[in-house]
Amino acid sequence: MKRFKDIEHLVRLAALFVTGVLVFLIARVELVPATFGALGHYRAAAIDDVRARPLVHAGQAACAECHVDVVELRARARHKGIACESCHGPLAAHANGTTDAKPARPVATPLCTHCHAANTGKPKRYPTVDIREHAGGESCVTCHKPHDPRIL
Amino acid sequence: MDRTRRDFLILGGKMFVMTSVAAAALEHVIAGTPEKADSYRTADHWWAMLIDVEKCIGSGHCVRACKLENNVVDEPFYFRTWVERYHVDPLDMDHPAVDSPDGGIGGFPETYPDGRSRGKTFFVPKMCNHCADSPCTQVCPVGATFRTNDGVVLIDKEYCLGCRYCVQACPYGCRYIDPRTNTADKCTLCYHRITRGLPPACCEACPTGARQIADLKNPQDPVHEFLRGHQIQILKPQMATGAKVYYNGLDGSVR
C-alpha cells in the first residue's frame, strides 16, 4: 500500500520552502553590512567612520610645542586657563604644517566683549565692563595685551 | 601496490598541515587587514560631560568651536551644542523666560529689551546627553544610531534612513536632520578627539572651564574629586534616560 499518494505535491512544497530559505539567506548576506552586529545592533565600522574625522582644533598641547614664549607669558597671566584656539580659532592645519594656514589676528574688541561685556546672565565675580563707558570707541588692546591683560 | 603504510601516513600528515595553513590563510583574508595599531580600548572608558553653570558666561565660544570642528551646517538652527539664557522671575519661578539668540553663537545681548530687573539670570549650555539608556537609539528602526561601549551615542550616517524618529524621541531636542545628507545628526562628544586623548572642541574653546570632558572609568580623572564635593544634576531625570551630562549649580527651573 502506498502511504502517500501524490507525493510530488509534498516534494514541490519542500522545494519551494528550501528555495525561500535560500533566497532569504542570500539576500541577508548581500544586504546586511559587513560588520553589522559585531558589537551590537549596529554597523561596528560606523565607529571608525566617526573616528576618522580629521581634527580641526589642534589642541593646547600642539600649540605649546612651538609657541613656548607665549605659554610662558600666559602662565603668569589671568588668561592662563584659556586655550590658544579659543581666541585664535581652530588651527589644526597650521599645527600640522601641511599648509601655510597662518592664523588671522583676531579682531580685538568684538572678541573681548564676547566674554567681558556686562551682561545680565554673567556670574557676579566675573570681570565685566560696560564697554562704551569703559573704553568709549577705543580698542581694548590699546591698554590691555590679550595674553596678559594687566595694565602695566 | 608499492605504497607503504609509512608513505601513506607522511602524505596524510602533509595534507593535514597544508589544509590547516590554507584555512588559517583564508580566515586572515576574510577578516581583512588587522586595524592599525591602536591603543584606544572602548572597555577602558566611560565618557561623560561636566557643565558648571556657575562658570558659564554665555560667550558662545563652545557653539562656534563645535560648528567649525564638526562642520555643522551654518544656518542658525542647526546646533550640536547651544547656550540658553534663563531668566527666573521670583514671582513665577515655574515659568522661566528662556532665550537663545542663534543658539548663543554670537554671545548674548547685554540686557533684555524690556529691562528686566527682578529675578536672576544664568546661562545653561546644552548638548547631547549621551544617555546610557537613550530613547533615540531605542526607536531607530534600522540600527543606525547606537551607544558605544564607552558610552557615546553615535550615528551611522551611511546607514541612516532619515526617518526622523530619533529627532522626535530625544527629550532634550539634541538631534536634527542634516539638510546636506538628509540623515540625522548630533553631537558625537567629538569622538574623533576624545579617542585621541584630546578634549572635545567645546571644552577646548570654553574660556572659563565651564565644560569639562570626564572619563568616569579613569580613576585619575579630576571629575571624581569634583563629584565628591558638588551637588550634580542631570536634565529631566524623570525620563530615566541615564543622561551623562552632569550639571553643577543647575537651577530647578531648568527643563
Helix content class of chain A: 40-55%
Extended strand count of chain A: 0
Number of structural units classed as domains of chain B: 2
Residue stretches of chain B low in confidence (pLDDT < 50, at least 5 long) are: 32-36
Spell out the helices and strands of chain B N to C. Answer: HEHEEEHEEHEEHHEHEE
What does this 3D model show about the protein?
The complex is a heterodimer of chains A (152) and B (255). By secondary structure, chain A is mainly α. Among the domains of chain A are: 8-51, no CATH class; 107-152, no CATH class. Chain A has 8 helices and no strands. In chain A, helix 3 packs across helix 4 (68-75). Chain A is elongated, with a radius of gyration of 33 Å. The N and C termini of chain A lie far apart (115 Å). The model of chain A has no long low-confidence stretch (mean pLDDT 89). Chain B has 255 residues and is an alpha+beta fold. Chain B has 2 domains: 1-34; 47-134 and 170-248, Alpha-Beta Plaits, CATH 3.30.70. Helices cover 25% and strands 19% of the residues of chain B. In chain B, the strands form 4 sheets. Chain B has a 4-stranded mixed β-sheet, with no helix packed on it. A 3-stranded antiparallel β-sheet of chain B has the order 3-2-4, with helices on one face. In chain B, strands 5-6 form a two-stranded antiparallel sheet. In chain B, strand 2 and strand 3 (97-99) form a beta hairpin. Mean pLDDT of chain B is 90; it is low at 32-36. The interface between A and B is large, with 40 and 55 residues.
